[in-house]
Amino acid sequence: MHILMVEDDLDLGRALRQGLNADGITGEWVRRAADAAHLAANATFHCVVIDVSLPDGTGYDLLGQWRQAGLNLPVIIIPARSALEERLVGFDQGADDAGYRLAS
Amino acid sequence: MKNLFRASLARRVVAALLVGVLLVWPTLIIADYLQILHQQEQDRRNFATSPVGDQLLAALASVDNTQDVRAIAAALDRIDNRSRESIHSPITSVIQIRDRLDGRLVYSSPAVADVILRGEPFSRTDQLVHGLTYQVFEADSSRWSVLWGRTLLDTPWIFRTLAREIVGNIAIAIPCLLLPVLLVVLQGLRPLRRFSDQIAARGPDDMSPIGSIPKHAELKPLAVALDDLLGKLRRKIEAEQSFVANAAHELRTPLAVVTAQAHVLAKATTPEDRDEAQQHMEGAASRASHLIHQLLLLASMDMQRPAKCTTVDVAQLVRQTIAYFVPSTATRNIELAVEAPERLMLMLEVESFHSVLENLVDNAIRYGRQNGTVLVTLLHRGATIMLSVADDGPGIAQQERSRIFDRFYRGERTIDVPGTGLGLAITKQAASRMGGTLRMTPGLDGRGICFTLQIPVPIAPDPRVAASRC
Q1: SS3 for A75?
Q2: Which residues lie across from A75 on neighbouring strands?
Q3: From the list A14, A56, A102, which residue is nearest B259 (CB)?
């Protein structure tokens, strides 16, 4: 399985990648929304994991752009807060799952 | 009774009106009294003859008979005094008639029967008889000499009479005045009551602006001020909420790292992988611990607690702090320099000063230029202490400068440097706790950034120790 991970936090990104690798999941890790948009358009992924808060915009914006462009990848949003409201925003934008933070 | 003395605008207006009306009472009495005195004085001057004397003289014009004269005089005397008695006048009048042919007294009022009144024709003389001062008027016909005397009004009587008369009028006037005033006041205060009902009806979480601002000139400033306060509270609560949300998010990140690394650790097959996972877990724990330390620091500085001031050698403090940072400059080969006086005793909150210094130096080392320079300067100029930290790094973009003191805000170019986004927020809070300000200017050689903390230090009684706002 090959995934795209959009996470700006260095520690968390590294930890997630290592954790996924340990489970045999490979993927690309980018830290900016702009890089993610570029990669998603030019490579094939089974799934995308997006952090909500990114230095150059929110994960929701990115997801909205993809859905508009007709990109139908399965997307998991990592919300900043676990509030129901924010998870619903994710679904509205077309997320397939809005998971809790891994720690929760 | 307690209720009666409670502060109330309506009661105040009514009381003021009552006092005003009651003041009218003595004022009117005095005014009337002065008028009466004036009138009497006028009478003294003008009346060369007396009305009663004239009437008597007219009545006696065709009378020759002393018998008839006596009867007429007695009748008029009685009429004169009776009519005055009927109005409770304290004035008494007397009549004496003399026959001009022989100078004999034909008639005398009983009160002055044993005295001869002296007069002057068509003029007035004052004469004391039995303790009473009479104004005596004399009018003569060819046969009869008529003397008519009357006492003057005495002051206590005038006052008594006026007071009685005016108090009656005021007793009528008070309800007539109070009723409309009371109605107007109660009616006038109705918008205030409506307004307070409107405020009272709001829920504890309702910070929305006041919808309908009253149009009354007296209420509008209150409503506007309240609206303003609500706005400030609203923004403060929003800021608090977003702060809590941000803090939670920031704390979750290292915990997520720990969870992910635990997963890696469980699956690790080599000792190297295990060591690495353990190191990352420790790193995440220390990151969480640092964040919690900063959150607590910010919270403690947020509180309105009074500054805890001590006298300290600030120059020494700066040098010690710089020394502490020297090892961390090695990785990026940064030259850390300090310019400070030999000794600078200052009374301030050491914790706050240290926070400012620590955060500014830490930022300069982490975000400054590789192989660059960081210069820390401490100056005491006049009534101001200046601490500046300058670097020659990339600086801060103009459009970011207004936001860098916001909590959790991180600059766009800081993505590769770990940080919480709380350092400058703490710095700003600490500066304001010391009554100081933070300024941003270009850094060394026109590059980078220079943060300057300015603390006003009023001249202290002891010239060797300057004191900040303590």
Answers
A1: strand
A2: A48
A3: A102
Q: Does B318 touch chain A (CB under 8 A)?
A: no
Predicted TM-score of the model (pTM): 0.60
Helix H or strand E segment including B423:
helix B423-433
**CB-nearest partner of B263 from A22, A31, A32:** A22
Chain A contact present for B10, CB below 8 A: no
Sheet strand arrangement including A2-6: A26-30, A2-6, A47-51, A75-78, A97-98
DSSP class per residue in B184-228: HHHHHTHHHHHHHHHHHTS-TT--PPPSS---STTTHHHHHHHHH
| Eight-class DSSP state of B121 | B
Asked whether B210 and B223 are in contact (CB, 8 A), the reply is: yes
3-state helix, strand, coil in chain B (%, to 5): 55, 15, 30
- B244 touching A (Cβ < 8 Å): no
- CA B450 → CA B124, B362, B364, B380, B441, distances in Å? 104, 13, 9, 18, 5
**What is the Cα–Cα distance from B264 to B338, expressed in whole angstroms?**
45
Closest-CA residue in chain A for B282? A11
Which chain A residues are Cβ-neighbours of B260 within 8 angstroms?
12, 15-16, 18-19, 102
Best mutation target, B243, B263, B280, to test chain A (most A CBs within 10 A): B263
Q: Please enumerate in sequence order all residues whose Cβ is within 8 A of that of B431, keeping only pairs 6 or more positions apart, or say none.
A: B352, B356, B437, B438, B453, B455
CB contact under 8 A, A81 and B245: yes
The answer to whether the CB atoms of A18 and B284 lie below 8 A apart is no
Residue A104, token pair as written in the block: 């929760």
Residue B362, SS3 per DSSP = helix
pLDDT means per 10 residues, chain B with 470 residues, are 66 85 87 86 64 78 86 87 82 87 88 83 81 84 86 81 84 86 84 87 84 80 90 88 83 88 90 92 92 89 78 93 93 93 90 94 93 94 92 90 87 78 91 92 91 83 64
- B94 closest CA partner among B82, B77, B107, B79: B77
Contact A11 B287 (CB under 8 A): yes
